[in-house]
Specification:
Oligomer: single chain
InterPro entries: NAD(P)-bd_dom_sf, SDR_fam, TIC32
Strand order of the largest sheet: 3-2-1-4-5-6-7-8
Number of strands: 8
Family: Belongs to the short-chain dehydrogenases/reductases (SDR) family.
Protein name: Short-chain dehydrogenase TIC 32, chloroplastic-like
Number of helices: 13
Length: 330
């Protein structure tokens, strides 16, 4: 109840920010202290909180690489950013996170640029009321929201570790999750069932994918600490934001209920604030394996904190990718 009241009132937490804080506000005070030549890669930055995240980071002098499925929309976002910030460097590369082949091509193109990688923001997400499959015959929501980002992170992790080592600047990975990860029960979190979309329900599939993104954070954090790498990884809940995903959910509830709920939704700028805070704030230097809400450290579900579940999911995912990618090369 206290957390709900704090959210509704916009009361700031220990970080000095709260639910009403915008992305520009949370980056304003430390923008002059940012290292020069930072590079951030953001998926799903052609609309919503992804586009706002790209705009604000570029405004703070960060070189932004936009991973876009729709290059036309990506070009529009780049033009808007450069109109506001003429000196901004914005690189646009094509990626379809539901496709392993596309993720591999994207990583090859990015690594071919031979630029550093300080920040990786796994932001792209989708929701579908209907059961759909990727080109690898994997349920589309799970493929896009989790598997694609898992492969992307895996392929770029050594680049991030190397960049951090050469520059002395802490690398940061941010997985954009959702509070609805807590809706998932252990009995409904079966890797093979999620792959094939068994007994498909759109909201449940979305929640499962967002739980998987947090478990991904937990296991990669453990591995990074084992290697003593100067790279952190954290999950964020942006809040319930007025974006396309919310509009897709609208058909599941009555118009009157949606009207009431919409009054409690965050603006896109407020929704991007936690991602931007975790990407740039000096206050959380060295913090890793955590879950942030409203720019403050928060609690995720017991299942999301289960280390054995995180390791199991990572092993299952790694085995799947190894098998599928090996088949593609044969």
């Amino acid at each position: 109840m206290k957390a709900t009241l704090r959210y509704l009132a916009g009361i700031a937490g220990p970080s000095g920010f709260g639910s009403n804080s915008t992305a520009e506000q949370v980056t304003q005070e430390f923008s002059s202290f940012l290292p020069s030549n930072l590079t951030a890669l953001i998926t799903g930055a052609t609309s919503g909180i992804g586009a706002e995240t790209a705009r604000v980071l570029a405004k703070r002098g960060v070189r932004v690489v936009i991973g876009a499925r729709d290059l036309r929309k990506g070009k529009e976002v780049r033009e808007k950013i450069q109109k506001e910030s003429p000196h901004a460097e914005v690189i646009l590369l094509e990626i379809d996170l539901s496709s392993f082949a596309s993720v591999q091509r994207f990583c090859s193109e990015f690594l071919g640029l031979e630029i550093p990688l300080n920040i990786l923001i796994n932001n792209a997400g989708m929701y579908s009321q209907n059961l759909e499959f990727s080109e690898e015959k994997i349920e589309m929501t799970f493929a896009t929201n989790y598997l694609g980002h898992f492969l992307l992170t895996k392929m770029l992790l050594e680049k991030m570790i190397d960049t951090a080592k050469k520059t002395g600047i802490e690398g940061r990975i941010i997985n954009v999750s959702s509070v609805i990860h807590s809706w998932v029960k252990r009995s409904c979190f079966c890797f093979n069932d999620m792959l094939c979309g068994k007994n498909y329900n759109g909201t449940r599939a979305y929640a499962q994918s967002k739980l998987a993104t947090i478990l991904h954070v937990k296991e990669v954090d453990r591995q990074l600490k084992e290697r003593n790498a100067n790279v952190t990884i954290n999950a964020v809940h942006p809040g319930i934001v007025k974006t396309g995903i919310i509009r897709a959910h609208k058909g599941l509830i009555t118009d009157s209920l949606f009207f009431i709920a919409s009054k409690l939704l965050k603006s896109i700028s407020q929704g991007a604030s936690t991602t931007c805070y975790v990407a740039l704030s000096r206050q959380i230097e060295g913090e890793s394996g955590k879950y942030y809400t409203d720019c403050n450290d928060s609690n995720c579900s017991d299942l999301a904190n289960d280390e054995s579940e995180a390791t199991k999911l990572w092993n299952d995912t790694h085995a799947l990718l190894h098998k599928r990618l090996r088949q593609e090369t044969n």
